[in-house]
Every structure is written in structure tokens, then in C-alpha cells.
Design a protein that fits this description.
This protein is α/β, with parallel strands linked by helices. Helix content is 16%, strand content 25%. The strands form three sheets. It has a five-stranded mixed beta sheet with strand order 1-2-5-4-3. The longest helix has 12 residues, at 12-23. It starts with 11 loop residues before the first helix and ends in a 31-residue tail after the last strand.
């Protein structure tokens, strides 16, 4: 196998896509190129094998792991997209890999291929509830261990479920149900908010 991509009339991204389509066809469902960005679509069954191919193939050498994140589409049958970004210094190119999964369908961890994915997968679990099998330490990373829910899901309430404060009498942090200090306003987009029923400092000048 040659270490270089054959010289053709294709642009670099198209040449990379051609190699992936030929030599990793059993690990992908489709490839798209939009806005000069290459996206490879795969499945949770094939993600580890595809990542290993992209890293180890001498023509690819996507050895630099950038990140992995989640996207929530609650109206879809499989509501989550898991999105990976890689960089190949050899090809001077970036690639995006996507797969879809549901609430309870775990995705194999790629930490065995890219150890740097560790904290990114933990973040996707914490923020979206996406499960990763084979992860060495899958636990929350941004929220507290007692946090309820996953805050980047589209159906997560803006106020959350609990609020945290330090109790001076108990000398510890306590969790309490959210207590809204002010009623939420209903907007009809026709009338402005009611103003204060007292004169604010400086407003007395308005009538002079």
C-alpha cells in the first residue's frame, strides 16, 4: 500500500473521500462534502474500526484528535448525533465523523484509539446523557455528581430542577427545589412590561 494518495484531478478532500469510500466502505454509510468540509457518516457498530483506519492508514494519518460532542434532535427517532473531529497533519486536512444514537443505545468509546477522547466523552454523557461503553471512567465532569438531568438536552427546563446553596447552619452545600424569585412573564408582543410604581433615580428629570 502506498503512503501517498494517488495524484488525480480530484481536490484533496475528494481524494480522501475516495480512499475512504474504497478501503473503508464497510465502516461507513455515506460521505458528504459541504462548504469545503468532509463529513463521514457511520454507525455505533463501526465507529472504533473507522477511527482506527483514519488514524493508522498511511494515506490518511488523522492522528490528531480534536474533539467529540453531542447534538440533540428530540424529534428524531434517534435523537442524538455524536460528532467527532480529526486533523491530519500529513494531508493538512480536517474530517468530521458522525453517527446517530438514541437515549438508551450506548456508543463504543474511542478512548482505546484516541485516549484524548476521555474527557470529551464524559462531557457528552454529562450534558446529553449519551452513553459510552468501554469508557474507563464515565461519570459527570461539568455538573455536580448529584445533578438531576442533562442540561444541553432541548427538553431540559431553563430553570433546572434543583438549586444549590451553602447552608450556614448545616455548614454544607444543600440541594433544594428551584424557587423562582419572580413570576415568569407571559409575552403577548403587544404591550410593554409594567414599569416600576416608584420614580427611579434620574427619572424625575424626564418631566422637566
Amino acid at each position: 500500500m502506498s503512503d501517498a494518495i494517488e495524484q488525480t484531478d480530484l481536490n484533496p478532500l475528494e481524494a480522501i473521500a475516495s480512499v475512504i469510500s474504497t478501503d473503508a466502505s464497510n465502516h461507513i454509510s455515506r460521505i458528504t462534502t459541504d462548504y469545503n468540509e468532509l463529513t463521514v457518516h457511520t454507525s455505533h457498530e463501526d465507529i472504533v474500526s473507522l477511527m482506527r483506519f483514519l488514524r493508522d492508514d498511511k494515506r490518511m494519518q488523522f492522528i490528531s484528535f480534536i474533539d467529540v460532542c453531542g447534538v440533540d434532535y428530540p424529534g428524531n427517532e434517534k435523537r442524538f448525533e455524536v460528532v467527532y473531529h480529526l486533523l491530519s497533519p500529513k494531508q493538512n486536512a480536517r474530517i468530521r465523523v458522525k453517527l446517530t444514537t438514541g437515549d438508551e443505545t450506548p456508543v463504543p468509546s474511542i478512548t482505546g484509539v484516541f485516549p484524548g477522547a476521555d474527557w470529551f466523552e464524559r462531557e457528552a454523557y454529562d450534558m446529553y446523557g449519551i452513553l459510552f461503553t468501554g469508557h474507563p471512567d464515565l461519570r459527570r465532569i461539568l455538573t455536580d455528581y448529584g445533578f438531576d438531568g442533562h442540561p444541553l438536552r432541548k427538553d431540559f427546563p431553563l430553570t433546572g430542577y434543583v438549586e444549590v446553596r451553602y447552608d450556614d447552619e448545616a455548614k454544607r452545600v444543600v440541594y433544594e427545589p428551584v424557587e423562582l424569585r419572580q413570576e415568569f412573564r407571559d409575552f403577548d408582543y403587544e404591550s410593554p412590561w409594567e414599569g416600576a410604581d416608584y420614580v427611579l433615580p434620574g427619572d424625575e428629570k424626564a418631566g422637566s
